[in-house]
Amino acid sequence: MTSSARPILNRRLAEFGTTIFAEMSALAVSTGAINLGQGFPDTDGPEEIREAAVRALRDGRGNQYPPGPGVPELRTAVVEHQRRRYDLSYDPDTEVLVTAGATEAIAASLLALLEPGDEVVALEPYYDSYAACIAMAGGKRVPVTLRPYGSSFRLDLDELRDAVTDRTRLLLINTPHNPTGTVLSREELTAIAELAVERDLLVVTDEVYEHLVFDGAEHVPLASLPGMRDRTVTIGSAGKTFSYTGWKVGWVTAAPELVMAVRSAKQYLTYVSAGPFQYAVAEALALPDTYFSAFREDMRAKRDLLAAGLAEAGFGVFRPAGTYFITTDIRPLGHGDGFAFCRALPERAGVVAIPNAVFYDHREAGAPFVRFAFCKRTEVLADAAERLRKAFAH
Ligand SMILES: *Cc1c(COP(=O)(O)O)cnc(C)c1O
């Protein structure tokens, strides 16, 4: 050990010592509560895709270091996916980079594109790795808070414009948005794009829930808007779309200079990863539209089941237009502090949830909101809904 005058964990990471997920998952285990905290499915994705991974392992494809940018089959499949879905064209050799999940794509992008002191404007509440990765890159995060309007959280475009300064290097966007379930509209995204062009900003956009949009909402990739293709780093991932979150296969699509920059950071993080899984994900991306629509429909039904239970229990429910998550308001239940509420919830109701305040810099703005994941088996969600009704409804 070193002298006690100096903390072991460095200053950049000091505020990120432990995550709420560890605390809440431990509570789930010690109380036997149903864990709707962390967002991972409790059933695996398509069997044929798992078999594709087994075949790759057996055939010795990807068992040794795959190429730095990713295996050609996957890069081509990513390009084909972007073309088929969004009419966006990319060169598989210079404009695609395979990463260890979206998590590494986010880290490598920020490490590559930020100088110390650069400001990053990001939508608050944030996915939890954003703040930590901005800090690791020496950047300064500038939150723009999504606020509840009626039944969803929306972006205040004036607040966004006001957040941009001469020191802003990039906008970090996430749509569909975790944890609020907001899918940014074409109008909101157009305003973001116009701002990026006007102020000459780079944009990093996390679109890992691109296939999880409900009720006719449309996912619009930022890169598809005028002036955006060559200033946007688009991040995708197989984990959420194919229900294999443990495989950690993600990717970046962007202009060659941006991909080259991100790769400069990525090569010293993992260098490469998930060799055999890359081949399986290449096959997954080529699944017919029926896979994607059935998956979306299944998740919509799960959302509706849990949302109904939460509403009957008395929560305020923000009906998500996308993602794995429902954000609720606990004030109708007579509570205002999501932390205290979530710490007591396993004992009180036998369910674990996450206080949205952990995703905010402005903790008070997130205090009354609590997030539940619905990417679980129907019987698990029905059980959780019943427990919540019993605990809260009178
Ligand atoms: C789950 C998630 C990620 C991480 O994706 P991986 O591919 O598992 O690394 C990134 N961004 C958001 C918004 C997520 O919800």
Q: Would you give an account of this structure?
A:
- The protein contains 14 helices and 15 strands.
- It has a seven-stranded mixed beta sheet, with helices on both faces.
- The mean pLDDT is 96.
- Strand 7, helix 7 and strand 8 (202-206) form a beta-alpha-beta unit.
- Helix 1 (20-31) packs parallel to helix 12 (338-349) and helix 3 (72-86) runs parallel beside helix 10.
- The protein is globular, with a radius of gyration of 21 Å.
- It has helices spanning 20-31, 47-58, 72-86, 101-113, 128-136, 157-163, 186-198, 238-242, 256-266, 275-285, 289-313, 338-349, 363-366, 378-392; strands at 34-35, 96-100, 119-124, 140-145, 147-149, 152-154, 168-174, 202-206, 232-237, 249-253, 316-318, 325-329, 351-352, 354-355, 369-373.
- The chain is of the alpha/beta class.
Short characterization:
With 394 residues, the chain is α/β, with parallel strands linked by helices. 42% of the residues lie in helices and 16% in strands. The chain has helices at residues 20-31, 47-58, 72-86, 101-113, 128-136, 157-163, 186-198, 238-242, 256-266, 275-285, 289-313, 338-349, 363-366, 378-392; strands spanning 34-35, 96-100, 119-124, 140-145, 147-149, 152-154, 168-174, 202-206, 232-237, 249-253, 316-318, 325-329, 351-352, 354-355, 369-373.
Topology (SSEs and partners):
Blueprint (H helix, E strand, L loop, with lengths): L19 H12 L2 E2 L11 H12 L13 H15 L9 E5 H13 L5 E6 L3 H9 L3 E6 L1 E3 L2 E3 L2 H7 L4 E7 L11 H13 L3 E5 L25 E6 H5 L6 E5 L2 H11 L8 H11 L3 H25 L2 E3 L6 E5 L8 H12 L1 E2 L1 E2 L7 H4 L2 E5 L4 H15 L2
Parallel strand pairs: 1-13, 3-4, 3-7, 7-8, 8-9
Antiparallel strand pairs: 2-10, 5-6, 9-10, 11-12, 12-15, 14-15
Helix pairs in contact: 1-12, 2-10, 3-10, 4-5, 4-9, 11-14
